[in-house]
Amino acid sequence: MIRLFSHYVPRNTLFIAALEAVILSVCVYLAAVLWAGPGEPSSLDRLAIESLLLAFTMLLAMGVMGVYGQASIEGWGSTLARLVAAGAVGFGVVSLVSRGFDETIAVLGVPGAVGIAAAFVLISLERLLVFRWKGAKALRPQVLVLGTGTRAARVEDIVRAQPSARRMDVVGFVPANEESHHVPESRLLDRREGESLWDLVNRYGVNEIIVGVRDRRNGGLPIGELLECRLHGVRVTYLTDFFERETGQIRVDSLNTSWLIFSEGFRRNTLRNLVKRTFDILASGTLLVVTMPIMVITALAILATMGSPVFYRQQRVGERGEVFTIRKFRSMRNDAEGDGKARWAAEDDDRITPVGRVIRLLRIDELPQIINVFQGQMSFVGPRPERPEFVRELTEAIPYYDARHSIKPGITGWAQVRYAYGASVDDSRQKLQYDLYYVKNHTLFLDVMILLDTVQVVLFGKGAR
Predict the structure, then answer these.
(1) What Pfam families has UniProt attached to this entry (predicted)?
(2) Please, what's the largest Cα pairwise distance for the chain?
């Protein structure tokens, strides 16, 4: 994993994206040059720029279609289908946009189509090689876990859950003065008498040590041995940092207040806030105009099938715990909470109307919240705002829950694109772990990634309830 703009990105994903950017731009450029024939140097420069722009648009389309997400490394058929869809979407978008320019874009039309077709054949072959060699043991990092407690035991569970293209090998666990072990005896490394941690690292070819020791006092943490390994170039990572890097979560069960205080992140400054607010104003203003026809049709459908009111207003908890009112298109019956008691939305909830089920599936019910973004009560990206009744319950039940209120809530967020719809305290605990990751690492780069993933979630109807 590489930390890029405060966000962890798999190395192989960056490498594959860069390689495919080169393939796309070169294929489109060569196709355009061969089609146009000999020309002036200035025209060749223009073709190169247009080829790069078209390649960048294609990469965005591939990102939106999930080509660089987890789905892309779990099945060859799924990846191929997404590649074809991304090619059609990307080329179509560029063709539509180009009509607003006076000058013809040379890489469009036949040369662009031929170049993209050739590029996608090469990309398909490259992806086939990736799938063939993604599980090669020689390419996997070798990891040693120091500690055998309940938290350390979770390392192997997380590694097993990883897609094989990102998987590492856990060579074993080394006890660190624990009275009881929570890993199988067979996973304990045989440490010979007098053998140091560095000797074990050498014997097993270890690249990284995960420190999963809870009690670091009274000799619980072998500082001298860890320092020796670190000075020899072995990476040493605390368990909380490992969870953050590999799962995109800050896990509550491995968290302590001192880590929150001293860890890198949680940066807030005027420039960052200004950039985020400027983005929110421009994006919300544009989306209000673009989605107005959809909202008008939705309002008429609700009036025709359910009657008034069209909008559902509800209090939510925002930044610094301030309560504000959000607007959503009504998707439930008027008597959904007739007794005045707040309820989680359940799967196949009988309170949801037929029209409501459709607009929830397509996330159209969330569109009126663009007004909240424009007014500054929300951001496009951030932790989802929760109802005050639930916040009181969750704050008592889940440690650090109130930390999510340190920034503005959002229409979409890291938890929304990484976890299914939450409808219980346990679901809220899982989503909080993603929210804490976002609060710690949020940047414009991460916001853009989340927005791209949100488009995919809407297209494939993930997590709707």
Answers:
(1) Bac_transf (PF02397)
(2) 80
Q: Domain boundaries in the chain?
A: 2-133, 137-247, 270-460
pTM over 0.85: no
Give which of 154, 168, 1, 32 is closest to 105, Cα–Cα: 32
For tokens 């390649």, what's the residue?
55
DSSP 367-390: TTHHHHHHHTS-EEESPPPB-HHH
CATH code given to domain 137-247: 3.40.50.720
**How far is the C-alpha of 171 from the C-alpha of 206, rounded, in Å?**
8
Query: CB neighbours (10 Å) of residue 311?
Result: 15
Question: CB 329: neighbour CB atoms within 10 A?
Answer: 22
d(CA 17, CA 67): 10
pLDDT tens-digit map of 407-460: 999 999 999 888 876 667 888 899 999 999 999 988 888 898 888 888 777 766
Cβ atoms of 170 and 143 closer than 8 Å: yes
